[in-house]
Amino acid sequence: MKSRSHFEDLSALLDGELDHERARFLLRRIGHDQALADTLVRWQQQGDVLRGEHVNVSPDFAERVAARIAAEDATAPMQSAERQMMPMTSAGALRKRPWRGFAAGALLASCAYVVFGWIWPQQQSASGVTASEQVAQHESAAALAAPATPPAMQLSKVILAEAKDAETRDAEPAVARVAQRPARSRIASATSDAQAAARARAASPLTDTPASAQQVAAVQENPGQLPRLMVDEPTSSQWPQPRLPGNGNPFNVSHRPDSIGNDPFRPHLSVDER
Amino acid sequence: MAEPTSTPISTTLLDDELVKRARRGDVRAFDILVRRYQHRIVALAARHVRDWAQAEDIAQEAFVRAYRALESFRGESSFYTWLYRITVNVAKNHLQAQKRKVPLADMSDDGLEALSEDLALQSADTPEQALVRQQTGEALLAALATLPGELRQALLLRELEGLDYQQIAERLNCPVGTVRSRIFRARENIDEKLRPLLDGRATTRARVR
């Protein structure tokens, strides 16, 4: 049985007349006491009616909002997992958590995947860019996920799995359309140089995940099929080397393990551009 | 009931506290925020679209976006002001998507807190909603009429005049603790009479749908 004083405190809370300590106690209690929460809302509505501000909202409006948020969380498991991992001690800590940066990285990688994997290759195709250059561009998108953490990798793998499913389920019309996109076809016909580079990445210890191990096996069995899989995988390989048209372009930079301070993330001009 | 011994928490701080909890993943805290402001936000949306279903859709979208953006809420304005702006943006996007003219008067950020002054809500009401609104208002007036005078006075000074407890105590020449108790009892009494109507409204809506 709830104390009547809790409801009197609730009334004062609504009016901004409850001291901080008791307000915090009551808010904690509201968090798991539906009757208090409902009463707070009804009293709020009383005031709205008195002031002529009340409108008739569907009784299940708040439930629908909550259901939609829950549904979106379910479709974005990475975000949901991130929220659940947040400590209950400090709101500011949420902003400081490194997971946020990693999650942003994962989102960036997925965006880059779309841009470099689908849109740009289509545009570049029209302007005469070769298949190997497209693969190089695609690599840059995949490598953006290099510093990704497990949650970020989860998201990337979800994207990857969807792409793979689209390739394997050719019988399904919608998926077949995805598999028949021009960019895929161009990437599949990448030059042998690009295939070799992708093969090297697959063998790298940094990419020794179950997914990459499967790819290595797939390469050994059927090397000709390699590029279609490898270019999709966000690997932990070296920093991407986006190449703009023209070898003399000063914006073409590369990143190598032998960079200054042995930092693979420090940019420097590639050899052929020095 | 003992008098408050420390600084009272303001209504803004109440929202801030709820926001903090929602950021930490407390779904109930955000649910309370939704319930606190759903009527105002739907009313705001209804100023842009003269269709109640669309207004609720816009309001729902605004709440979802607010939830997603909670971490970007810096507390520089009140939560309601922030939510108001999100709602206006969602409504603008909705109208632009429909290639409809955006009411210029609604695009200003001035007077965000004085929403009630120029609401033209009745025009967006369906006949059923107008009836429910009328019934709710009448029930509230009837409940007020049955209240003892001192309870009614205290509640109206708070809800309509916007006075704080200290000002009400001075006006009624009684202790602040008494004001606090009277307002609580007034709300409790009215709630008993309005609850059946609100429950009945839900049933009616379900039947009409």
Walkthrough of the structure:
The complex is a heterodimer of chains A (274) and B (209). Chain A is mainly α and 274 residues long. Chain A is 63% helix and 2% strand. Chain A is built from 14 helices and three strands. Chain A has helices at residues 4-14, 20-30, 34-50, 61-75, 77-84, 91-96, 98-126, 131-143, 150-168, 173-179, 182-188, 192-203, 210-221, 226-230, and strands at 18-19, 253-254, 268-269. Chain A has a two-stranded antiparallel ribbon. In chain A, helix 7 (98-126) runs parallel beside helix 9 (150-168). The longest helix of chain A has 29 residues, at 98-126. The termini of chain A are far apart. Chain B is mainly alpha-helical. Chain B has helices at 11-23, 27-46, 52-68, 79-97, 127-146, 149-159, 165-172, 176-208, and one strand at 8-9. In chain B, helix 2 (27-46) crosses helix 4 and helix 6 packs across helix 8. The longest helix of chain B is centred in the C-terminal third of the chain and has 33 residues, at 176-208. The radius of gyration of chain B is 19 Å and the shape is globular. Mean pLDDT of chain B is 79; it is low at 1-7, 110-123 and 200-209. At the A-B interface, helix 1, strand 1, helix 2, helix 3 and helix 4 of A face strand 1, helix 1, helix 2, helix 3 and helix 5 of B. Strand 1 of chain A pairs antiparallel with strand 1 (8-9) of chain B, so a sheet runs across the interface.
